Amino acid sequence: MKPNSNPLLRFARLFTVFALLAAPLAALPSEGGAANPKTVDQDVQALKKQLIDLNRDLFKLEEELLYPASTQVAVFLSVDVGTFFALDSVTLKVDDKEVANYLYTEREVQALHRGGVQKLYLGNLKAGTHEIVAFFTGKGPHDRDYRRGTTLKVDKTVGARYVELRISDRAASLQPEFIVRQWE
Amino acid sequence: MAATIGVPAFAAPPALDSIAPDFALKGIDGRNLRLSEYRGEPVVLHFWASWCGPCRESVAALDALARRSGTPVLGVNLDGADRAAAVAGSLHLTTPTLVDAQQSVARTYDVAKLPLTLLLDAEGHVRASWSGVPADLSELTPQLERVRQY
């Protein structure tokens, strides 16, 4: 299910946006009254801030409803140095089912190199043991095509489970290293 | 004149004013391109295949338009990397040629007839489309100007 496909949440969002947009109309000066442009501008800015805050809260609520902590599993990807590996794509499988296949553009790779962390997958898994497999493709040392897989057994308990896939450099062997870590 | 591909007959490309679905594909030069990275400027998206006669004419005309106007034109080829590269080379294309050999993007866009040309505005909305016929440059050019000024 797509995060924004819940009709109830969409309605709640729309309703709140309309309510917020309608609120300042009620506060408009009556006919003949002059509105202070500075005050109007401040009101608009405050309204924008409220809207952003509200959108953030609704997004969090939506995520909590669609992916409750009891079943939530999220997979993140980060790159640390990465001089021995130029990332091209990542394919992610959970219990042998492909759940994500991501092709990286130059800008996205640069963003990862600058410290960005990508949420590659967010989904629900029942409590128990699950297998997460990630396949990385790209250019390895000496500009050669490189494909590497890494597997992780995840014991899903009642709390949300976060998995970090990290591409790093193993300087000793001049090879890339793919590290998988779990967070609770 | 139009070439049809294996999608249901009721399929239709994205409606006018709808947001063009985002995608990332590998180009024949090996670089990956994502449509949403072109947000902020109008883009012409063009689906074509080597076996589609009118496509060659269309792709060459759009490439010339890109050189003339500086508008990004993204060609999405439905053959395969080798075939796409051969045709792009023979036509001396300068615009990015992306390869959708699995036709996953073509399915997302419900491409039933080739060529399919979409004019997207700076926010990614479809502003004009030509399906099954080469884009008419006498229509496309003024629409592009309007989209730029919007």
- Structural class category of chain A: alpha+beta
Oligomer: heterodimer
Broad shape of chain B: globular
Query: What string gives the helices and strands of chain B in order?
Result: EEEEHEHEHEEEH
Elements of chain A, N to C (H/E): HHEEEHEEEEE
Number of helices of chain B: 4
Share of helical residues of chain A: 25-40%
- Globally, the shape of chain A reads flat
Per DSSP, the total helix count of chain A is 3
Average of pLDDT of chain A: 84
Largest sheet of chain A: 4 strands, mixed
Q: Based on DSSP secondary structure assignment, what is the total number of beta strands of chain B?
A: 9
Give the strand order, joined by hyphens, for the main sheet of chain B.
3-2-6-5-4-8-9
Biggest interchain interface, per-side counts:
A-B, 9 and 8 residues
| Largest sheet: spatial strand order of chain A | 4-1-7-8
Rg value of chain A: 23 Å
Provide the residue-averaged pLDDT of chain B.
90
Contiguous runs where pLDDT drops below 50 for at least 5 residues of chain B: none
Distance between the termini of chain A: 24 Å
Structural notes for this entry:
The complex is a heterodimer of chains A (184) and B (150). Chain A is α+β, with helices and mostly antiparallel strands. Chain A has helices at residues 7-26, 37-66, 106-113, and strands at residues 72-79, 86-94, 97-103, 118-124, 128-139, 145-156, 161-170, 175-183. Chain A has a 4-stranded mixed beta sheet with strand order 4-1-7-8, with no helix packed on it. Chain A has a 4-stranded antiparallel beta sheet with strand order 3-2-5-6, with no helix packed on it. In chain A, helix 1 packs antiparallel against helix 2 (37-66). The two termini of chain A are 24 Å apart. The model of chain A has no long low-confidence stretch (mean pLDDT 84). Chain B is 30% helix and 24% strand. The termini of chain B are far apart. In chain B, the strands form 2 sheets. In chain B, strands 3-2-6-5-4-8-9 form a 7-stranded mixed beta sheet, with helices on one face. A two-stranded antiparallel ribbon of chain B has the order 1-7. The model of chain B has no long low-confidence stretch (mean pLDDT 90). Classes of the chains: A alpha+beta (184), B alpha+beta (150). Chains A and B meet through helix 3 of A and strand 2 and strand 3 of B.
